[in-house]
């Protein structure tokens, strides 16, 4: 029987994953939230705004009917922004069963609860024993949609990996298994905050040394919070940690890095967010990480300064405050 996959979402990452899966021989159904967009996708197999070079193969079909999408397969990929995951999961409650494999590809934390995405899913489906997991790694959709090679991690049980990896395992996406869901989800979410910080440094002309310092000390900061929340430090040194920090913070295609650059130009946060239809996950995640850092009394100096800059603190002052912090040992957590 031909393998099947349901993808919920129709943004940049959902389109790219649909393309990879379809080219791997998987039959894909994509749930598209907006009827108008769904009609366009059915007609053209191309998104009118995102990744317009991409023409999805005929084995990707589109539906605006959530029940139809849910019934299509037991393999679900959740590719919506983090702040919308709960709404989607609640609507999927009548359809999810113990036999489902559900992988979140979103990289963020829920703002009002501070929950990771698999925790949100579990929260919405407390009685269901579906296999839940997360896909995360240095995966700029644009590059992968061009056929450039990338690697990523599917975190969760071995059974989940065995079920989901073959559906996506195309020649240009190499997938690794990983049992540490907490580390993979936190790595994918927290790196967005660092990408904003590097974007700020970049557009402020602070230089390569400063950008490298933010990435390295920022990774330490991510690890400090993630380990407190149950992750393994070694996971943060992997693809969904170090790997994604490097890719996102260095790429001109990153929305998080772009937002940092726009902040450095003096534009207010609300105006920047309103000027794009795309999701910038690092914004809500920075607020959540700061709150968690305060709650656990963990120093997260870079994250804290990013939040201060959101609130209007001048970049020059933020740099001065970071540089004049009390001296510590490099390895100190
Ligand atoms: N773009 C990338 O390169 C990339 C790579 C890896 C991971 N991600 C992650 O994937 C997630 C989605 O990002 P993206 O880049 O695909 O988004 P995007 O910025 O391209 O667009 C978001 C899309 O989600 C849709 N959406 C919003 N709420 C929805 C809902 N309730 N149900 C269905 N669809 C809904 C919107 O209509 C929009 O099309 C984010 O968490 C992001 O961090 C993105
Ligand atoms: O464009 P960004 O900043 O949302 O980053 C996209 C991916 O998460 C990179 O791995």
Major sheet: size, sense and barrel closure?
8 strands, mixed
Terminal Cα span = 51 Å
What is the total number of structural domains?
Answer: 2
CATH topology of the largest domain: Rossmann fold
What is the C-level CATH assignment of the largest domain? Alpha Beta
CATH architectural grouping of the largest domain: 3-Layer(aba) Sandwich
Please identify the oligomeric state.
single chain
Fraction of residues in helix = 40-55%
**What ligands are attached or bound here?**
nicotinamide-adenine-dinucleotide, SN-glycerol-3-phosphate
Report the sheet-strand fraction. 5-15%
Instruction: Report mean pLDDT, rounded to a whole number.
Output: 97
CATH superfamily of the largest domain: NAD(P)-binding Rossmann-like Domain
Write down the Rg.
19 Å
Strand order of the largest sheet: 3-2-1-4-5-6-7-8
Number of helices: 16
Shape: globular
Low-confidence stretches: none
């Amino acid at each position: 029987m031909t393998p099947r996959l349901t993808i919920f979402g129709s943004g940049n990452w959902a389109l790219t994953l649909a393309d990879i899966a379809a080219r791997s021989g998987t039959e894909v159904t994509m749930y598209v939230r907006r009827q108008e967009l769904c009609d366009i996708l059915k007609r053209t197999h191309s998104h009118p705004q995102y990744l317009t070079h991409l023409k999805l193969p005929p084995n990707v079909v589109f539906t605006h009917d959530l029940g139809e999408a849910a019934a299509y397969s037991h393999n679900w990929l959740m590719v919506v922004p983090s702040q919308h995951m709960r709404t989607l999961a609640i609507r999927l409650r009548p359809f999810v069963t113990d036999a489902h494999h559900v992988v979140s590809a979103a990289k963020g934390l829920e703002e009002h609860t501070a929950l990771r995405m698999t925790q949100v899913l579990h929260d919405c489906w407390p009685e269901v024993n579906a296999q839940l997991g997360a896909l995360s790694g240095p995966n700029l959709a644009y590059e992968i949609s061009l056929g450039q090679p990338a690697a990523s991690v599917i975190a969760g049980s071995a059974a989940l990996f065995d079920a989901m990896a073959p559906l996506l395992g195309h020649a240009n996406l190499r997938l690794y298994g990983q049992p540490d869901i907490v580390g993979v989800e936190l790595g994918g979410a927290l790196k967005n905050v660092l990408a904003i910080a590097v974007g700020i440094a970049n557009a402020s002309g602070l230089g390569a040394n400063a950008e490298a310092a933010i990435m390295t000390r920022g990774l330490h900061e991510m690890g400090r919070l993630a380990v407190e929340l149950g992750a393994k430090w070694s996971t943060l040194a992997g693809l969904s940690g170090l790997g994604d920090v490097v890719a996102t913070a260095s790429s001109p295609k990153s929305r998080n890095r772009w937002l940092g650059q726009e902040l450095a130009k003096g534009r207010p946060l609300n105006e920047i967010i309103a000027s794009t239809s795309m999701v910038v996950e690092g914004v809500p995640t920075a607020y959540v990480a700061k709150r968690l850092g305060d709650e656990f009394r963990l120093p997260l100096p870079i994250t804290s300064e990013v939040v201060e800059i959101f609130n209007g603190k001048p970049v020059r002052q933020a740099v001065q405050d970071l540089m004049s912090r009390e001296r510590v040992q490099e390895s100190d957590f």
